[in-house]
TrEMBL record:
Pathway(s) where this gene product acts: Amino-acid biosynthesis; L-methionine biosynthesis via de novo pathway; L-homoserine from L-aspartate: step 2/3; Amino-acid biosynthesis; L-lysine biosynthesis via DAP pathway; (S)-tetrahydrodipicolinate from L-aspartate: step 2/4; Amino-acid biosynthesis; L-threonine biosynthesis; L-threonine from L-aspartate: step 2/5
InterPro entries: Asp_semialdehyde_DH, Asp_semialdehyde_DH_beta, NAD(P)-bd_dom_sf, Semialdehyde_DH_NAD-bd, Semialdhyde_DH_dimer_dom
Domain Semialdehyde dehydrogenase NAD-binding positions: 8-123
Alphabetized SMART domains for the sequence: Semialdhyde_dh
Record: residues binding NADP(+): 15-18, 43-44, 163-164, 331
Organism of provenance: Streptomyces prasinopilosus
GO terms under biological process: 'de novo' L-methionine biosynthetic process; diaminopimelate biosynthetic process; isoleucine biosynthetic process; lysine biosynthetic process via diaminopimelate; threonine biosynthetic process
Residues at the catalytic site: 133 (acyl-thioester intermediate), 258 (proton acceptor)
UniProt GO MF annotations: aspartate-semialdehyde dehydrogenase activity; NAD binding; NADP binding; protein dimerization activity
Reaction(s) catalysed by this chain's protein: L-aspartate 4-semialdehyde + phosphate + NADP(+) = 4-phospho-L-aspartate + NADPH + H(+)
Name of the molecule in the record: Aspartate-semialdehyde dehydrogenase
Binding site for phosphate: 103
Amino acid sequence: MTRSGRPALAVVGATGAVGTVLLQILSQRADVWGEIRLIASPRSAGRKLTVRGEETEVVALTEEAFDGIDVALFDVPDEVAARWAPVAVARGAVVVDNSGAFRMDPEVPLVVPEVNPHTARIRPRGILANPNCTTLSMIVAVGALHAEFGLRELVVSSCQAVSGAGHAGVRTLREQLSLVAGTELGTGPGDVRRAVGDDTGPFADPVALNVVPWAGSLREDGWSSEEMEVRDESRKVLGLPRLPVAVTCVRVPVITVHSLTVHARFEHEVTVDGAREILATAPGVVLYDNPAAGEFPTPADVVGTDPTWVGRVRRALDDPTALELFVCGDNLRKGAALNTAQIAELVALPARS
Ligand SMILES: NC(=O)c1ccc[n+]([C@@H]2O[C@H](COP(=O)([O-])OP(=O)(O)OC[C@H]3O[C@@H](n4cnc5c(N)ncnc54)[C@H](OP(=O)(O)O)[C@@H]3O)[C@@H](O)[C@H]2O)c1
């Protein structure tokens, strides 16, 4: 089929951790795009990457790079998105931004196609935002339960993969693993820290053979930026501006897939059977929950897949209105690239929203 007459797409940040997965996803999904233009920093200009089976040259980020582009996906650091998304809009593109630059802007919808697709239609700034990967890794499952039961409170702990910190995060874990592999380390205070050295990359502490109760930067009263984002973004996506949300974010030595423990309290009493029925039929969710057979989602199995996986569904022992869940999602796919690709398709094919 010819691609002429179809909308043109730009991928800004095509060389990054999210951009790389986005190119795979664009090659796998139904092809709605005409030209796909790949954009990155001047460092990467001239590099050739493959998308839809075609070698495509990366061009540097400039104003002219957006000429003729209908939809521009931004997978770049916050400050780059803040500066260049309005440039793309001024050149006639609708921007779908994956950074944190616009997520809480009241004039920028925060879109999860399975939960609030209608919000993508009204975009006063010409920009749509993609939630943070931690929020996205659970919100499709939580949104499905909310639609049926009416959510009243969320208490969440994350186990976040290192690829949430981009290529630098992955590099750091791999280097640290090579330094501790085959040793007896992890048996005395500080032995792992001494082995991996002072440079812990984008993480506050060594991440190999360890867990680090920190993600993001320091906010008021000891909260991390990542924790505040999960709270603020869950409220915005679900349309519940006063929802009580308590979050603790933890980095774990997993390459890709964020996992979360979720305590969700609802308006009325809930049953496990009722919750299972909703989760088993919700678009974008897979219920994988048979602890007697040792069946529940783990990052090692979920990585590279699109859905939000849910297991360990239990009713809270001390509150018949609350459920306990364990949720896993690929932070680079649904947590980032897939959701932006889905939003871009809502823009290109508005009848879906
Ligand atoms: N990793 C995740 O799980 C995840 C999930 C959700 C959202 N996000 C967000 O998505 C964005 C990208 O994250 P990532 O993990 O893919 O980061 P990354 O691996 O560090 O990649 C960054 C990308 O941005 C480009 N870039 C950097 N500075 C630039 C500049 N001045 N001009 C043009 N391009 C520039 C890089 O191009 P070069 O290669 O040319 O330097 C690269 O393509 C961030 O805002 C991040 O917060 C990440």
